[in-house]
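Practice record 12: protein with adenosine-5'-diphosphate.
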Amino acid sequence: MSNPVRGDGERDGGVGSSDPGRTAGRAEDAAPGEVLLKVTGLRKHFPIRKGLLQRRAGAVRAVDGVDFEVRSGETLGVVGESGCGKSTMGRLITRLLEPTAGTIEFEGEDITRLGVRGMRPLRRDVQMIFQDPYSSLNPRHTTGTIIGAPFRLQGVEPEGGIKKEVQRLLSVVGLSPEHYNRYPNEFSGGQRQRIGIARALALRPKLVVADEPVSALDVSIQAQVVNLMDDLQRELGLTYVIIAHDLSVVRHVSDRIAVMYLGRIVELADRELLYRAPMHPYTKALMSAVPIPDPRRRKDRSERVRLEGDVPSPIAPPSGCRFHTRCWKATTVCTTAEPPLEELRPGQQVACHHPENAVDRAPRDSGVAGTAQVVPTRR
Ligand SMILES: Nc1ncnc2c1ncn2[C@@H]1O[C@H](COP(=O)(O)OP(=O)(O)O)[C@@H](O)[C@H]1O
Ligand SMILES: [Mg+2]
């Protein structure tokens, strides 16, 4: 994360009070910039069963052939509309779901087929933060029990005992050690997500997959939680995969961004490149939907692309390029041949037969829509 959003409200306290040397210990194995996670040909098809005999009648192709790497210390943002397979992908890389095909390598080791025993060390290294801080915390458990659970599950006894470590984690995420005996319903949404973050960080993971970590929160609170995650990343040497349906959330915190559409990555690029000159029409359409906070820049955006219709069913995705049914640039080739994800510019991979901004004319302003053909918004 290099350019965090700064909210106007309270600054997130407590991070500096932790002992960074001690806490960062486990994350030092992979040098910054080295590949931590490598995903190849990853697929997850959920079978659909019908009738009394529960015969297999097709499958939901939630993730359908995805390749990417995550380097140590970076933040990869993953965006796309609802139903594009982002959560399934997050659950696959944290091994909460079994892949249908493909491989997942962590620190160079193939972890795709590891059993429960083989996964044990990995359960410490890879953690997940969930979208909904209301349903992801057991209402009958105290904060102390919730954040202390990973230690008990893994049989880890922290120095000074679990209670002391949990209280330290509470202050690391900007809560008070006195919150130890409180229940989730005594906290606000933002505070609950801080509890979720503390639980995810308890075992000092290397990789944290956050599935829409702020989507359920008030917009005014979102920046605070994102800033906290950003501070923690620097402090603890974490690597993040942050999933969001909204480009505005990942914009400020991602080093690279993967855009998903119907189970595939359609564009994967360095953040600056993606915002300055998106190449996939779908990326461009998603960006047009992002509100621009500065009204002076709004008038520059008279040409906006509007995404019509819904994401087609992942049970029978469109032939060729899956986006062709909604794309204003689609031609015959788009309906028959699936474009491969190719590096069209250094640091920018795109899967499109007719990419936008193919000639780099370096548009002046980052939120401005590109220079290629644009369909004016129908109003
Ligand atoms: N356990 C499941 N069984 C069947 N279909 C599923 C399951 N989980 C997700 N899906 C389907 O897979 C597709 C992708 O879902 P998901 O990964 O949740 O997308 P996103 O997080 O991008 O909204 C959706 O069509 C969803 O209905
Ligand atoms: Mg999701």
